[in-house]
Amino acid sequence: MSCGEPHETDCAEILDHLYEFLDREMPDSACTKFEEHFEECSPCLEKYGLEQAVKKLVKRCCGHDDVPTDLRAKVMGRIELIRSGEVAHGSAMTDVDQQGATVTPASSGDS
Q1: For residues 18 and 50, is the Cβ–Cβ distance under 8 A?
Q2: Which listed residue, 44, 81, 86, 96, has the most CB atoms within 10 A of its CB?
Q3: What band does 88 get if pLDDT is binned at 50, 70 and 90?
Q4: Distance, CA of 38 to CA of 23 (rounded, Å)
Q5: How far apart are the first and last CA of the chain?
Q6: Does residue 89 contact residue 82 with C-beta atoms inside 8 Å?
Q7: Which range has the worst mean pLDDT, 37-41, 43-47, 83-87, 96-100?
Q8: Nearest to residue 32, comparing CAs of 9, 54, 16, 15?
Q9: C-alpha pair distances (Å), 45 with each of 7, 11, 84, 98, 109
Q10: Whole-number pLDDT of residue 63
Q11: How many helices (H) and strands (E) does the chain have?
Q12: How many angstroms separate the Cα of 59 from the Cα of each of 52, 56, 64, 95?
């Protein structure tokens, strides 16, 4: 998406990293770049406001559910493996089907 106006930082780059900005998972210098972009680009500011509202709504409605400790540990372990480059995205991962059964990629296709 682009608003069609020239900006120091392209709209596509802003929108590609919007959740990192919302979650404050980027350096302050990058946050400043986003804030400056929002001051001059109303379509991106509108998208930011919408995503911020959705995030607040989800937190209000779902933020009280406790996450099982083992699930949190598994997810954090997977994130660390991916960050370290030991696991390619999507390889050797298992999925959970709608009934809650764990399936591997090889067995998840039609048999």
Answers
A1: no
A2: 44
A3: low
A4: 16
A5: 40
A6: yes
A7: 96-100
A8: 9
A9: 13, 10, 34, 37, 42
A10: 67
A11: 5, 2
A12: 11, 5, 8, 25
14: how many CB neighbours lie within 10 A of its CB?
A: 22
C-alpha angle 101-107-108 in degrees, rounded to nearest 5: 65
Q: Measured between alpha carbons, how far is 52 from 47 in angstroms, rounded to an integer?
A: 8
Letter for the amino acid at 89? H
Of 34, 30, 35, 42, residue with least CA distance to 14: 34
Q: Cα(55)–Cα(27) distance, rounded to whole angstroms?
A: 21
Which residues, listed in sequence order, are joined to residue 17 by a DSSP beta bridge? none
Rounded Cα–Cα distance for residues 95 and 76 (Å): 16
Give pLDDT tens digits for 29-38.
899 999 999 9
Contacts of 26 (CB under 8 A, 6+ apart): 17, 20
